[in-house]
C-alpha cells in the first residue's frame, strides 16, 4: 500500500511539473524542479516530449542544463537529437559548463560536424581543455580522465593549501584527494582532506603527504584502470604521462560507467551479438547487429550437418543412433559454455596470472572428467533399460564421457589462447563454443559407433 502511495505521489509531482511548464509558471516550475535530486531532474527531462523540452531550455541556464546532461545515461542515438533541439550557442554553453570528461563523452557521440560547430563557438578555455582530451585514444585512461582536479605545490603550507582548496573546490570534481606536484608539475604525492583538516596550519605539505602514490599512464586501458580502482578502493586515481607529469584524474563515478560498459560489451559477445544495445527499438537495427554472428554460425551448422551426412551408412545400419545426437551435442555445448564463462570471468577480473593458467586448465580437466564420468554412467544405465542394449548404452555413455572432457577443455583453452594473442576472449561466445563442441561431439560419437558397428 505504501509503495502504491509513493508511486501515485511521484506521478502527481510529475504531472504538476508538466502542468506548470505548459502554463508558463516559471517560478513554480523552478521551485519544484530543483527540489528533485539531480538524477530525477535528468530522468524527468529525458521523458518529456521534444516540444516540452524546448520550453525547458527557456527556463534553465546552460549551467543548470549541463548538470542535467551529466546525469543522463544516453547512447549514441540519444544525445544527437537532444542537442539538435537546442539553440547552437545554448548547446555550446551547456557543454562548456559540464565537467570536461563528460563533455568529451557527449561530443564523441555526436556527429563530427555538430561537435566541431560547438567547439568553435564555445569559450576558448573550455574548448581547449575539451580538445586536449579528444586527442586521446578511446577506451584509455586519457579518454575518461577529467582535468577538473586540485593540485598543490609540495613546498606549500597547510594554510595555503586550504586556501587553494577553498578557491578551487567549486569547480573540482572531487576534493577528498589533493595531489601534490613539484616545480616541474610532476606527481610526487597525495594528501587527503582529512590530513589537511587535522594538521597544523604551518606544517609543510611535503611533511604530511604520502609519497607512495599510485598512478596510471594516460595510455592505460580503461579496463585495467577500473580493476586497479577496485583493488585499491580509490575514490580518484591520478593520470600521468611518461615523465610523471600530472595530467588529470579518474573518479569512481567514471569507473562505474566503465564497468557497466565493459560488462555489457562482454555479455553481448558471450551472447553472440555485436554491440548489443537495449535501445535498438527497430527490428532492422537489431537484426543488422545480430546477423554477422548468425551467418557465421549458420555455416558452422552446415558443417555439422555435412559431418552427420558423412556417417549416413552408419545411420542406415543403426537408425537408433540418430536419437542420441541432440543429447550428446547438447551436453557438450552446455559444459563447454560453463567452462567458457569461468575462464572469461577469470580473465576479466584479473584472477588469471601466468602461474595460474595451468591450474585453471587442470581444474577444468578434472571437472570435465568427473562430470563426464557421472553423466556417462547415468546415460549408460538409462539407455540400457530403455533400449535393452548394454553396448548401445555403453557407446552413448562413453561418447558423452569423452565429449564432456573435450568440451570442458575447449571452453577453457579457447579464451586463454585468445587472451594470449591480445584478442578479446569474450568473442569466443557461447553460441560459437556450442557449435564447435557440436562438431567435436558428433565426430567422437559417430567415430566410435563406426569403429564398433559389428557390436550394435
From TrEMBL:
<dbReference type="InterPro" id="IPR006669">
    <property type="entry name" value="MgtE_transporter"/>
</dbReference>
<feature type="transmembrane region" description="Helical">
    <location>
        <begin position="291"/>
        <end position="311"/>
    </location>
</feature>
<keyword id="KW-0813">Transport</keyword>
<dbReference type="InterPro" id="IPR000644">
    <property type="entry name" value="CBS_dom"/>
</dbReference>
<feature type="domain" description="CBS">
    <location>
        <begin position="209"/>
        <end position="267"/>
    </location>
</feature>
<comment type="function">
    <text>Acts as a magnesium transporter.</text>
</comment>
<keyword id="KW-1003">Cell membrane</keyword>
<dbReference type="InterPro" id="IPR046342">
    <property type="entry name" value="CBS_dom_sf"/>
</dbReference>
<feature type="transmembrane region" description="Helical">
    <location>
        <begin position="392"/>
        <end position="414"/>
    </location>
</feature>
<dbReference type="Pfam" id="PF03448">
    <property type="entry name" value="MgtE_N"/>
</dbReference>
<keyword id="KW-0472">Membrane</keyword>
<dbReference type="Pfam" id="PF01769">
    <property type="entry name" value="MgtE"/>
</dbReference>
<dbReference type="InterPro" id="IPR036739">
    <property type="entry name" value="SLC41_membr_dom_sf"/>
</dbReference>
<protein>
    <recommendedName>
        <fullName>Magnesium transporter MgtE</fullName>
    </recommendedName>
</protein>
<feature type="domain" description="CBS">
    <location>
        <begin position="145"/>
        <end position="207"/>
    </location>
</feature>
<comment type="similarity">
    <text>Belongs to the SLC41A transporter family.</text>
</comment>
<dbReference type="Pfam" id="PF00571">
    <property type="entry name" value="CBS"/>
</dbReference>
<dbReference type="InterPro" id="IPR006668">
    <property type="entry name" value="Mg_transptr_MgtE_intracell_dom"/>
</dbReference>
<dbReference type="InterPro" id="IPR038076">
    <property type="entry name" value="MgtE_N_sf"/>
</dbReference>
<keyword id="KW-0479">Metal-binding</keyword>
<feature type="transmembrane region" description="Helical">
    <location>
        <begin position="426"/>
        <end position="448"/>
    </location>
</feature>
<keyword id="KW-0129">CBS domain</keyword>
<keyword id="KW-0812">Transmembrane</keyword>
<comment type="subunit">
    <text>Homodimer.</text>
</comment>
<feature type="transmembrane region" description="Helical">
    <location>
        <begin position="365"/>
        <end position="386"/>
    </location>
</feature>
<keyword id="KW-1133">Transmembrane helix</keyword>
<keyword id="KW-0460">Magnesium</keyword>
<dbReference type="InterPro" id="IPR006667">
    <property type="entry name" value="SLC41_membr_dom"/>
</dbReference>
<feature type="transmembrane region" description="Helical">
    <location>
        <begin position="317"/>
        <end position="344"/>
    </location>
</feature>
